[in-house]
Amino acid sequence: MKIRLIDGSVYDVARAEVTNGRLEIDFQGKAAEELQDIFSVPALLTDIGLLTDDGEWTGNVPGWTVYGGVWTLGDTNTVILTKSVNVTEQRLTDAESNAVAANAAAELAKTMSAETATQVTDLQMAMCELYEGMGV
Q: Quick check: 3 and 49 in contact, CB under 8 A?
């Protein structure tokens, strides 16, 4: 199983489920400090996508934006997330999340634009070579 955050980052997880009013996400092989860095940014958590191991979307869990810590048991680190009860805080988090998602989309568009420009240039060069070869 995998999860995808708002910025498009994808992480392998052993489990992601809502238990006792909180979202618990189990990780294996990730340090607690690394998980704290990832999950302490509420804007990245506004809509967590759930994916299969092959990357196919299976659902999402929106609104779990309050980082509650990491619970360690053996080699499994469980991230605990809850929902915000402060409406103003949730609105600010949603606005920041929209900005992060827009930035990720802009970066993807920029990359695709550069690739398309390169392809057009290559096509123009190929056409010039064909015309030269045909003596036109």
A: yes
CA 27 from centre of chain: 16
Q: Structural domain of residue 24, as residue ranges?
A: 2-134
What's the token pair of residue 94? Answer: 């949603």
Cα separation, 52 vs 111, in Å, equals 26
Distance CA 71, CA 125 (A): 58
| Separation between Cα atoms, residue 18 and residue 5, nearest integer Å | 17
* Dist. CA 124–CA 11, nearest whole Å: 41
Tokens of 118: 């390169």
- The model's pLDDT over 26-54, given as tens digits with 9 standing for 90+, comes to 999 999 999 999 999 998 999 999 999 99
Which residue stretches of the chain are H helix? 32-39, 87-134
53: which DSSP letter?
Answer: T
Q: What's the first-to-final CA gap in the chain, in angstroms?
A: 58
Q: How many domains are there within the chain?
A: 1
**Cα 25 to Cα 14: distance, rounded to the nearest angstrom:** 8
pTM assigned to the model: 0.65
